TrEMBL record:
It is a lipid-anchor. Gene3D superfamilies: Periplasmic binding protein-like II. It comes from Bradyrhizobium diversitatis. This is MetQ/NlpA family ABC transporter substrate-binding protein. It holds the Pfam family Lipoprotein_9.
Amino acid sequence: MSFRLPLILSAVLAAWSSTAGAEAIKIGVTPGPHAQILEAVKPIAAKRGLDIQLLEFSDYVVPNAALDSGDIQANSFQNQPYLDNQKADRGYKIEAVGLTVNFPIGVYSKKHKAFADLPEGGKVSIPNDPTNGGRVLLLLRDKGVIKLKDGVGFKPTVLDITENPRKLKFIEVDAAQAPRALDDVDAAAINTNYATQAGLDPVKDPILREDPKGPYVNLIAVRTADKDKPWVKILVDSYHTPEVKEFVLTKFKGAVLPSW
C-alpha cells in the first residue's frame, strides 16, 4: 500500500493538472441535434486538451451576433448560404472552419397525406429567413409545384415566383415557430432540429423532403481573427472522428447526415 498510494495520488494529480490546463471555449448551438452532437464531441476534445462549454440559443439570429461580439468562441447551427447572408447584412467578421452535418428540410402536414392533396389556394408556411425560406421554394420548384425567376440562386423569395398554378398561399413564419403553424396551415416547411423537438420524424413524416445533397451542409464558424488558433483545429478534428460519425448515424437514423 505504501507504494500504491503515491502512484494513485500521482495519477489523480496528473488528471487534475490536465483538466486545469485545458483551454476552455464556448460554442453556441441550437437545441436538438446540434447540441446533442457537440455533447458527443466534448469528451473527445477534452482528451485533446480542449474544454467545450455549450450555450443553447432558441433562434438562428443570436448565435452569430454572440460570436461576432466575442461572447462565444464558435457556433454550430448554420449552413454557408445562411452565413453568407448574415455577413452581407450585418458585416460580421466570421467564417467557416469545418463542415458538420446536413439536415434535409421537410414539408409536413396534419391535414394531408401527400403534397398533391393540398387544395387550390392552400396555405403553406415557410421560414421567414432568406436562406431557409429559399430552400423550400427551390424544393417546390424542383418538384414542379411552382416556377421561379431565372438566376435566383440559393435565396429566392415569394416575389420570385413566376408561376403558381395551384395558387398556394405562402405564409412566412419564424423557423422556430414552424411546428406550431401546422395546425393552422395545410402544410409547413420545418427545419430538422425544430421538427425533432416537436416529436416529428424527419425521415418518415414529411410529405416532401429536400435532396440531402447541395449547398446546405452545416458548419462550424469562428471569428476570422481566431481561425488559425490551435484550438480551432482540435475542435474540427474532434468533430471529424469515426466515433462522432457513428453517433450521428445511430442516433438520428437518417434524419441527420454526416458531411465528412
